[in-house]
Design goal:
The protein contains eleven helices and eleven strands. The chain has helices spanning 22-26, 36-47, 51-58, 62-69, 79-93, 97-110, 132-160, 194-200, 206-214, 225-230, 322-329, and strands at residues 8-9, 15-16, 237-238, 247-251, 255-260, 266-272, 277-279, 287-290, 296-300, 303-307, 315-319. The strands form three sheets. The chain has a five-stranded mixed β-sheet.
């Protein structure tokens, strides 16, 4: 509804005019701000929440939320995860997630290639540096300590030196003793082993005995995927509400996973640890993006099928449809 600006008379009979805001002319005080980040910040302030509270609820790092609100795209992780952050944040604030995501994608395109590609990840470890002054002080302290150690060593060495060289004392070398006479010993009968008896009976040749002695021990068979999963420590189970799940993700190494539907709905976006698992909703169009493809094993209908990808390589947009999982395990196309 359009707001009415009241005009009052001044003491001299003139009109007291007030500058009219552009929003008052349009009547749309709740129209979106210039960027999605500004809308998200305004929505959070209207709710009275702080960034720490939102970070705990959404399981998204606080610095990523700050980067979204301040439009610092270069501080965000990959495109896929950044879009998931916007969708989850907008849904938490009661905004339209689809509209916010579309606006965010347009803002990314307008800002150029500042945001990394969808499969890349921002480093989780922040670099901490000492101020330059502390580095200089630390260097001076280390130099003083080394000088003190050197001074003590020189002082101790001068105290331990004798005043005069000691007089050499002649020593008497004893004459060598004659070598003892060794008497021959009659050979004693040696008990035969079962192997020697078998050799004498013609059951094993010298070549067979040598080959058996030089044969290396047989190596243990490689560990199967099921054995590696069974050896993991007990972890936390996620998605337990999905009782009808046919596909279950088992985490072998610490990694971040993102499971979302083809309509953009994010079901999980967090770091999991060895022994953790996630039950995928039985829904068509589910995909998996994993920071380390070799750290995630896929189970279909109670049977371990495959790994999500190669070790230390990003697995992006992997279909979790049961038929797709079965085809990949059987050597079919993804």
């Amino acid at each position: 509804m359009t707001k009415v600006t009241h005009l009052t008379l001044e003491e001299g009979g003139g009109l007291n005019r007030r500058r009219i805001h552009l929003r008052e002319i349009s009547g749309d005080a709740d129209s979106p701000l210039e960027t999605v980040g500004q809308d998200l910040r305004a929505g959070r302030q209207r709710r009275g929440d702080d960034l720490a509270t939102v970070s705990r609820v959404l399981k998204i790092r606080k610095d990523h939320l700050e980067a979204l609100e301040e439009d610092r795209f270069e501080a965000l992780p990959g495109r896929t995860y950044a879009v998931g952050f916007v969708r989850a944040y907008a849904d938490y604030l009661g905004l339209d997630p689809v509209q916010c995501v579309e606006r965010f994608k347009r803002e990314i395109a307008g800002r150029g290639a500042e945001l990394p590609a969808g499969g890349s990840f921002a480093p989780e470890i922040e670099e901490r540096r000492l101020p330059h002054g502390w580095i200089v002080i630390a260097g001076v302290v280390v130099a003083l300590i080394l000088y003190g150690i050197y001074h003590l060593a020189v002082t101790a060495d001068s105290l331990l030196k004798p005043a005069a060289a000691p007089t050499q004392v002649a020593t008497r070398v004893p004459a060598p003793k004659p070598a003892p006479t060794i008497k021959p010993v009659a050979p004693q009968p040696v008990a035969r082993t079962s192997q020697q008896a078998a050799d004498e009976n013609g059951q094993a040749s010298p070549a067979d005995r040598q080959q058996a002695a030089l044969a290396p021990p047989q190596a243990a068979p490689p560990q199967t995927l099921a054995e590696s999963i069974a050896a993991l420590p007990p972890g936390e189970a996620f998605g337990t509400q999905n009782k009808d799940a046919r596909v279950i993700l088992h985490i072998r190494e610490t990694t971040r996973i993102l499971v979302e539907a083809n309509d953009g709905t994010v079901y999980i976006n967090r770091v999991l640890h060895p022994g953790d698992s996630y039950r995928v909703p039985d829904r068509v169009g589910m995909t998996l993006t994993a920071q380390d493809g070799g750290a995630v094993a896929l189970e279909l209908d109670g049977q371990l099928m495959e790994l999500a990808g190669k070790a230390s390589k990003v697995a992006e947009g992997l279909s979790l449809d049961p038929q797709a999982v079965a085809d990949r395990a059987n050597g079919g196309a993804n």
